[in-house]
């Protein structure tokens, strides 16, 4: 019997009506011959309500309150949805039961609040499938620590739960039902011509996700890539057929890779330059160590050519972290003349597996931006991505121009 | 180290402020040198909300939906409170942690929705006390079945959880914090002179509880009696000292038993008489078997003197069950001339351990009612209780007259 994993996010199970709609989709897959593992999030808003209660109860300790109790409380939202989904399936004569993390047991490490999955033994659920159950409804986002306490996997952890189950049970596919109908070439709110992709490679998805296309949790994509789990992203709110949504899969499963798959952006960036830093071995560590210590998420890093043992060091970080970055630099043991901050910049990136074997993408990108008069402040490149920092006011223009230049509105 | 069990009901943990107030009481007992096991209910309203969700999800099956899923969902309310209480105690520098049913584990049978406790192993919690934890916060109302599913003990099950923990841990006492400040000689809404009892015997409490003084769940009192657990009922909302509330204890712990401890009542009763029934061996079974089968809660039973092989059989039951009782009788294999129903009656009972060794209580009761012109329809007696069925319109009058007659406003 082939096993299919289906994951429903919080908006997809926000009410009993929506749970029923989701259960119908599950029933259809059962009728198609699958045994199904359903991973559910808490009903929309419930996790926030519980997190708020915990925060208020532990407010005297600030963020230092006992994460084990946080997890014990917050995980209950998924338990509720799992039971309701199992009942709803039973109402449709689909043999189903719910599983909480400790019942599977989904074993994690003891890092409460952001636990990592160690093991998902198949025995208990396999036995139920053998007895004739067709659906295991699993509470997402939670597991059990070596000490027997309930853990949570961190925000978005239900995606990770789903992929981990798909890997453990050799599932034919892991379908992620959410409130968007797939992965787009760029944000449709910015470029009207944005097109839904039929397929995208794991590597591209990772670059798009970490750059702001918040469809899938990054960790779940990494996990899917490592274990070769084919993901499908699709909407709970549309009557999509078998080939709907976007398939996130291995590169070799994409017959004809597009040169460029998508345009990502990140709006609220700042560009920070340390002017006239001494250029000596270890200077990068002396700068970025303290920044990491201060919790600054440094993204792009560019070092200019050195002259007479001095250089300029430029990096980007979220605009809201500039004050922290400045303080960290002033307290660090480095010499520099001044800090220059430009805080109204944005990052735009072109992502595509195809550019690995194609040289012209960068120049094509710079041409397109030049034609629109967009000045490029910083450039960084990776194997499948080229990112530029530009004035924030040109961000939408740049995304649209690049979408046009690479003809992303047309299926490749 | 002496262990104290403290149980807080739903209204006592309805908000974070109330949880803090409860936690302060726990902190005081810890300062007094106790290790404390705290049993918590769900925040007021939460269990109803979850029960409603389950009922709606399973509505197609009526009451036949999967009780295991009901329990999986409904038990989550207590998990939330337990975590919040543990956090709140930690904020007050009291070393505490939460325990869910499966973590203890509190083992029950598999009767989901009304499971019975089989075993509470001490090891895990004892180990934590030995490590320096001073408080174990346990989610009430729940356990784990032999199959590893979460079970619930039925409504009011948190009282039972508390008593079971007190028995398993040889607790010095089990304090039940609720929204009343103790057990009264009768309902203060009916008799203004009603007085809070300092002590009451288990047997008396059972008679009062099953007769309508809904302070403690009957099952928890039975359990306390069996294991000799001293219960104390007291209010969460008053600043009561060490001797406040009502102690529910063994008869031998009450130095001077009062003749009568309390007056109980039950308003919505009906009196049903089968006229001219054949009087043969097995006739009682032929009548009350079908009534039990129809779900009629028969309370008092009186059989009149038999004449010429015929008799009248009278019983009382809740007024709402009269139609069911009538149908069951008409379909039963018994011969009778007619059914006579009086449906505006009420039951008033005098309860007291002292009457075991005292003969005059019944006549004193009948005298008091006669002085007020209250006609008695049915009388039944047990060792520590005398109950009468009277016209409902005289109920308040009867309760007040009896309260006066036995001088219950005065401490014995």
Automatic annotation (TrEMBL), chains A, B:
Keywords: Amino-acid biosynthesis, ATP-binding, Kinase, Lysine biosynthesis, Nucleotide-binding, Transferase. It catalyses: L-aspartate + ATP = 4-phospho-L-aspartate + ADP. It is an enzyme of class 2 (transferase). GO terms for biological process: homoserine biosynthetic process; lysine biosynthetic process via diaminopimelate; threonine biosynthetic process. Gene3D superfamilies: Acetylglutamate kinase-like (3.40.1160.10), VC0802-like (3.30.2130.10). One of its GO terms (molecular function) is ATP binding. GO terms for cellular component: cytosol. Its EC number is 2.7.2.4. ATP binds at residues 7-10, 178-179, 184, 189, 214-215. NCBIfam families: asp_kin_monofn, asp_kinases, PRK06635.1-2, PRK06635.1-4. PANTHER family: ASPARTATE KINASE, ASPARTOKINASE. This is Aspartokinase. The lineage of its organism: Bacteria, Pseudomonadati, Pseudomonadota, Alphaproteobacteria, Rhodobacterales.
């Amino acid at each position: 019997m082939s096993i299919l994993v289906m994951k429903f996010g919080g908006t997809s199970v926000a009410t009993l009506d929506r749970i029923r709609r989701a259960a119908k989709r599950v029933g259809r897959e059962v009728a198609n011959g699958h045994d199904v593992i359903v991973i559910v999030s808490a009903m929309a808003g419930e996790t926030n309500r519980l997190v708020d209660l915990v925060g208020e109860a532990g407010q005297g300790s600030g963020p230092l309150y006992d994460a084990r109790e946080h997890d014990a409380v917050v995980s209950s939202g998924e338990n509720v949805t799992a039971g309701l989904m199992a009942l709803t399936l039973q109402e449709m004569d689909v043999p189903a039961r719910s599983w909480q993390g400790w019942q599977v047991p989904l074993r994690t490490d003891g890092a409460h609040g952001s636990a990592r999955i160690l093991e998902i033994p198949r025995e208990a659920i396999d036995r139920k499938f053998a007895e004739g159950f067709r659906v295991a409804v699993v509470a997402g986002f939670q597991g059990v620590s070596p000490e027997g306490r309930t853990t949570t996997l961190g925000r978005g952890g239900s995606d990770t739960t789903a992929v981990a189950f798909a890997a453990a049970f050799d599932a034919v596919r892991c379908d992620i039902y959410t409130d968007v109908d797939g992965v787009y070439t760029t944000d449709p709110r910015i470029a009207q011509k944005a097109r839904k992709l039929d397929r995208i490679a794991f590597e591209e998805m990772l670059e798009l996700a970490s750059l702001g296309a918040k469809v899938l949790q990054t960790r779940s994509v990494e996990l899917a890539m490592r274990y070769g789990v084919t993901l499908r992203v699709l909407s709970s709110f549309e009557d999509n057929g078998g080939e709907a949504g976007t398939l996130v899969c291995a590169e070799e499963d994409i017959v004809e890779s597009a040169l460029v798959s998508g345009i990502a952006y990140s709006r609220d960036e700042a560009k920070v330059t340390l002017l006239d830093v001494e250029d000596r071995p270890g200077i990068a560590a002396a700068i970025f160590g303290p920044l990491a210590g201060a919790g600054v998420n440094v993204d792009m890093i560019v070092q200019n050519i050195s002259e007479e043992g001095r250089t300029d060091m430029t990096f980007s970080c979220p605009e809201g972290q500039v004050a922290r970055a400045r303080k960290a630099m002033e307290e660090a043991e480095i010499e520099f003349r001044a800090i220059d901050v430009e805080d109204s910049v944005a990052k735009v990136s072109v992502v595509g597996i195809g550019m690995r074997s194609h040289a012209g993408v960068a120049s094509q990108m710079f041409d397109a931006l030049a034609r629109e008069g967009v000045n490029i402040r910083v450039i960084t490149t990776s194997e499948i991505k080229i990112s530029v920092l530009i004035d924030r006011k040109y961000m939408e223009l740049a995304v649209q121009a690049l979408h046009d230049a690479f003809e992303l509105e047309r299926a490749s």
